[in-house]
Design goal:
Elements (H helix, E strand, L loop, with lengths): L2 H5 L15 H7 L2 H4 L3 H17 L5 H19 L12 H13 L12 H37 L4 E6 L2 E7 H26 L18 H7 L9 H6 L2 H27 L7 E2 L18 H24 L14 H21 L4 E2 L1 H9 L5 H10 L4 H18 L8 H5 L9 H5 L1 H7 L8 H16 L2
Antiparallel strand pairs: 1-2, 3-4
Helix pairs in contact: 4-5, 4-7, 4-9, 5-6, 7-8, 7-13, 7-20, 8-11, 11-12, 11-13, 12-13, 15-16
The chain binds arginine.
The site of arginine has 10 residues, from α7.
């Protein structure tokens, strides 16, 4: 054997090579530094595959036992930080397989029968994505529960509702919080939908065309908790739609969190002063002693861009790839890991931050009283007394202009002053012009009346406890 050939003996695929891998290429093509994170999934997949091989009589019971013991010992070594990862062995799959052979001898070399790293890695990522979807969903539920509690406590707290960030109409703060709940509820639904397409087993697709061994794909799928097996081997090894779907779900979710965060940033400012975040979730300034900065919401807002970026990375990675597996696919892991970590951190932050917000009811109430938030109510009042809506709009517009001039809210104008705009206005107008009157009047499904908010809270509680 030539010296050059001997140099490639450490590679599991070294058979046809006559020259050692270039050191740069070895580093450039290796993924072990990041894909070792998949060791649990990789071992689980190998366990299921080995059991299937034994069931198909490709391995003896004794060989299976040796392989299973070996794999579990390796799992323990990795958990104990005693495993020597090697870049020369390229990726998590070959590191583990080679450690298995080192540990149990020749039998270890039989594990890869009827399998390829292509279906192996696809299986690992699907198992990983499934697990992470479940963790993200659990965190989402935690945040939703926190929101429901705030909404229940603040159902009759009144704040100004905004359009164009200008005071529009008074709303219940609980109602506002339940709007966030709804966004997260759609996120949850999207994740569950995505999970269905994730949960299919690619094992058995082998390199791309399937395998000539008498394998039992249903058996492996079942062992790994998959709902079934992929239907086309070429698609199975090359498909990364499920990661892109998770990244899409995560991006929409982050878009929602960035919207909440923006509101928290605004609301904690001296100008709004609607809420206070707990000290433990804020930081100070090194130069301005008075500052208490909402860094956590700001960072969440910022990290949204990072998650969108990972979605675009994955989409671009898959763009134009011919069938079937290409090494490009190795680039799927870092964006995926990063976006999953980011989303989980952000949801965790919300689950801790929301129950601890201090809501300043009086400030919100006072703010709702400014900005003529009940102007629509006055218009509606006139319409109910027979005036066409467009005319009512005009009348109220004039009353508001008068109020601005007098520096008075509509409810602070005298009956006489109000009557000068329309003879239809009577004594009963003052009830209508109060903030309470305004929100209580919106008493229909999806409206801001506290009664409706509490009904929405109850429905949400029921839905969450049924998960
Ligand atoms: N490390 C590879 C990846 O992440 C595993 C599959 C490699 N397959 C191959 N034919 N080179 O995609």
């Amino acid at each position: 054997m030539s010296k050059k050939k001997a140099m490639n003996k450490s590679k599991l695929w070294g058979g046809r090579f006559t020259e050692a891998t270039d050191a740069f290429v070895e580093r450039f093509t290796a993924s072990v530094n990041f894909d070792r994170r998949l060791f649990q999934q990789d071992i689980d997949g190998s366990v299921a595959h080995a059991r299937m091989l034994a069931k198909a009589r490709i391995l003896t019971t004794n060989e299976l036992q040796q392989i299973l013991d070996g794999l579990e010992a390796i799992r323990q070594d990795i958990l104990d930080d005693k495993f020597a990862w090697s870049v020369t062995l390229e990726d998590v799959h070959m590191n583990i397989e080679s450690a298995l052979t080192a540990r149990i001898g020749e039998v270890g070399k039989k594990l890869h029968t009827g399998r390829s790293r292509n279906d192996q890695v696809a299986t690992d990522i699907r198992l990983y994505v499934r697990e992470e979807i479940d963790q993200i969903a659990a965190l989402l539920t935690k945040v939703q529960l926190a929101l429901v509690s705030v909404a229940e406590a603040e159902a009759d707290t009144i704040m100004p509702g905004f359009t164009h960030l200008q005071t529009a109409q008074p709303v219940s703060f609980g109602h506002h919080i339940m709007a966030w709940y709804e966004m997260l509820d759609r996120d949850y639904g999207r994740l569950m939908d995505c999970r269905k397409r994730v949960n299919l087993s690619p094992l058995g697709a082998a390199a791309l065309a399937g395998t000539s061994y008498p394998i039992d794909r249903d058996f492996t799928a079942e062992q790994l908790g998959f709902d079934g097996s992929s239907r086309n081997s070429l698609d199975a090894v090359s498909d990364r739609d499920f990661s892109i779907e998770l990244a899409s779900c995560a991006s929409i979710l982050m878009m929602h969190l960035s919207r909440f965060s923006e509101e928290l940033v605004l609301w904690t400012s001296a100008q709004f002063n609607f809420i206070e975040l707990p000290d433990r979730f804020c930081t100070g300034s090194s130069i301005m002693p008075q500052k208490k900065n909402p860094d956590v919401p700001e960072l969440i807002r910022g990290k949204t861009g990072r998650v969108y970026g990972q979605l675009i990375s994955l989409l671009t990675l898959m763009k134009s790839q011919p069938l079937a597996y290409n090494k490009d696919n190795q680039e799927d892991k870092e964006p995926l890991f990063d976006l999953v970590d980011t989303v989980k951190d952000c949801l965790y932050a919300y689950s801790e931050m929301m129950p601890a917000i201090n809501c300043k009811k009086e400030v919100m109430y006072a703010a709702a009283k400014q900005g003529y938030a009940t102007a629509t109510d006055l218009a509606d009042y006139l319409v109910k007394k027979g005036m066409p809506f467009r005319d009512a709009h005009e009348v109220v517009g004039k009353s508001v202009a008068f109020g601005i001039e007098q520096k008075k809210d509509l409810a602070e104008l005298t009956l006489e002053e109000l009557k000068s705009f329309s003879a239809l206005i009577e004594d009963d107008i003052f009830q209508v012009l109060t903030l309470e009157g305004s929100i209580n009047a919106r008493d229909h499904i999806g409206g801001t009346a506290p009664r409706q908010v509490l009904a929405a809270v109850q429905a949400a509680k029921n839905a969450l406890s049924a998960r």
